[in-house]
TrEMBL record:
The gene is nadB. The keyword Cell membrane does not apply. The keyword Zinc-finger does not apply. InterPro entries: FAD-dep_OxRdtase_2_FAD-bd (IPR003953), FAD/NAD-bd_sf (IPR036188), Fum_R/Succ_DH_flav-like_C_sf (IPR037099), Fum_Rdtase/Succ_DH_flav-like_C (IPR015939), NadB (IPR005288), Succ_DH/fumarate_Rdtase_cat_sf (IPR027477). It catalyses: L-aspartate + O2 = iminosuccinate + H2O2. GO terms for cellular component: cytoplasm. This is L-aspartate oxidase. Its cofactor is FAD. Residues 20-390 form the FAD-dependent oxidoreductase 2 FAD-binding domain. Catalyzes the oxidation of L-aspartate to iminoaspartate.
Length: 538
């Protein structure tokens, strides 16, 4: 079994720092939650790199909210439930669609400059949305603009203390509740950070896969540390692969936003043939899992490693104005998207599963909250609707802090948690090599298409890495790999258990959706394994 703690320690021997609220992570979820908490609480915000580095920064498409007069929360609700393939929580979706517009207004009050046309907020449409409800900034740099505005607020707030380049190794629990975290400083020293509430906002796990749109920091840390602490982890088999990441020699898997298709781009195979009509009535605007699998099918049929995204029929001025970041990035690699077809292929993009929370963002462990991609609020179900993730972070960030304000102070003076397994440092394969091997295992056996034989093989390969938990881990890359290994095991085990195809989870040996038996969730609990969960919503 995975141990509760990654390292040996004794709290009595470590320095203790106390605060009201601990926020771990600096994407939109962490920044917004910290700002809300700081209105009446002292906040320590921890980021393992820097405030500006997160998945949010790279979000291009925008943030979904009902703004237009011809739109309504009911339409947004229907679109979200349809994309979620029967596994959304209706109460969570109701919260998202009804509270999202006020969340956007709050972002604007905090300094976010969304694009406008003729003095009103500009809205675009994305895949599986029935209306234009996607707000964007600087054309295709929405995430960066939101992070810019929120970081400025955080840095100016006297109640927020930011710890850059610090790593949360584990959560500390006492009598079943979370009392803080074991943190490693940049110089390698460790301390106990004690808090009345701990909010995990540590983002996703795209780095489990060799090809991903996520930055290098997206290593699934939050899910792994919550799992070790005993929290319930839900729906980890549902990994969303973005259909259109740049696939070009020498270039990273740069995201080519869903909004490009929303503005009229079409997909063509290497023969130049448009193909989405063979796969879905919504063509290029079908749900992401459908589009991603269609692209893989065309790649296999034409023996190619990519397909083309073609927006050359639109005016060059419109393309440059609407997608300046994509245009500049591609031109840097010799691709002019106003006249050239863009070579694209699917890449790991978003984790629908995560730490199970209630409507207040609280996990199964009292005083431990989760917000953003690390959480499983029930909004996304089996497949996230485009641009709902930024809205979710705002809506649930506010709900979390309302709940935190109701918590009594943590009155424990003596917390004697510790771990002494006598771990010894021993020569190991370089972590960079282990990481690359893990990523290849996940791409080969636990990718867009799965079957029992592949998943068993993947599990077998991953289990060979388990001995690392018996050795002394000391550096950030050690902890990251341990977290990636745990998340990979969770994804693979749940993918093996779910014997159907639904949303982003596709089993070649069980290609049909089975609502009669499988309209349920899979929980993973460290001391119990996999537990099936049904609710009134599913």
């Amino acid at each position: 079994m995975i141990p509760q703690y990654l390292v040996d320690f004794d709290l009595r021997e470590l320095p203790t720092v106390e605060t009201d609220c601990i926020v771990i992570g600096s994407g939109i979820a962490g920044l917004f939650t910290a700002i809300k908490a700081s209105e009446d609480r002292r906040v320590i915000m921890i980021t393992k790199k820097s405030l500006m580095e997160s998945n949010t920064r790279y979000a291009q498409g925008g943030i979904a909210a009902v703004i237009a007069e011809d739109d309504s929360p009911l339409y947004h609700r229907q679109d979200t439930l349809m994309a979620g393939a029967g596994l959304c929580s209706s109460a969570s979706v109701d919260a998202l669609v009804n509270e999202g517009p006020e969340g956007v207004r709050e972002l604007i009050r905090l300094g976010t400059l969304f694009d406008k046309e003729d003095g009103v907020l500009a809205l675009t449409q994305e895949g599986a949305h029935s209306h234009r409800r996607i707000l964007h900034a600087n054309g295709d740099a929405t995430g960066y603009e939101i992070v810019r505005a929120l970081v400025q607020q955080v840095l100016e707030h006297h109640n927020i203390e930011v710890w850059d380049d610090h790593f949360v190794i584990d959560l500390i629990t006492d009598d079943g509740e979370c009392v803080g975290a074991l943190v490693q400083k940049p110089n390698g020293e460790r301390l106990f950070l004690k808090g009345d509430a701990t909010v995990l906002c540590s983002g996703g796990a795209g780095q489990l896969y060799r090809y991903t749109t996520n930055p290098e920091i997206a290593t699934g840390d939050g899910v792994a540390i919550a799992y070790r602490a005993g929290a319930h982890i839900r729906d980890m088999e549902f990994i969303q692969f973005h259909p259109t990441a740049l696939s070009y020699p020498g270039a990273p898997r740069f995201l080519i936003s869903e909004a490009v298709r929303g503005e009229g781009a079409v997909l063509r195979n290497i023969k130049g043939e448009r193909f989405m009509e063979k796969y879905h009535d919504l063509l290029e605007l079908a749900p992401r899992d459908v589009v991603a699998r269609a692209i893989v099918s065309e790649m296999e049929e034409t023996k190619s490693t990519f397909v083309y995204l073609d927006i050359t029929h639109e005016s060059a001025d419109m393309v440059k104005h609407r997608f300046p970041t994509i245009y500049k990035t591609c031109i840097g690699y010799g691709l002019d998207i106003t006249s050239d077809w863009i070579p694209v292929a699917p890449a790991a993009h978003y984790m629908m599963g995560g730490i199970k929370t209630d409507l207040n963002g609280e996990s199964s462990i009292p005083r431990l909250f989760a917000c953003g991609e690390v959480s499983s609020t029930g909004v996304h179900g089996a497949n996230r609707l485009a641009s709902n993730s930024l809205s979710e972070a705002i809506v649930f960030g506010r709900r979390i802090i309302e709940r935190v304000r109701c918590l009594p102070k943590l009155n424990k003076t003596h917390i004697s948690a510790g771990c002494d397994l006598g771990r010894q440092e021993h020569p190991t394969q370089a972590m960079v090599e282990r990481r690359l091997k893990l990523q290849k295992i996940m791409v080969r056996y636990v990718g867009l298409r799965r079957n029992e034989e592949m998943l068993h093989k993947g599990l077998e390969e991953l289990n060979r890495q388990l001995p690392i938990f018996g050795g002394a881990l000391t550096k950030r890359e050690d902890y990251e790999f341990a977290n990636m290994l745990i998340c990979s095991l969770l994804v693979t085990e749940s993918a093996l258990a779910r014997e159907e195809s639904r949303g982003a989870h596709y089993r070649e040996d069980f290609p049909q959706r089975d609502d009669e038996y499988w309209r349920k969730h899979l929980l993973q609990i460290r001391e119990l394994g996999i537990v099936e969960e049904t609710s009134d919503d599913v």
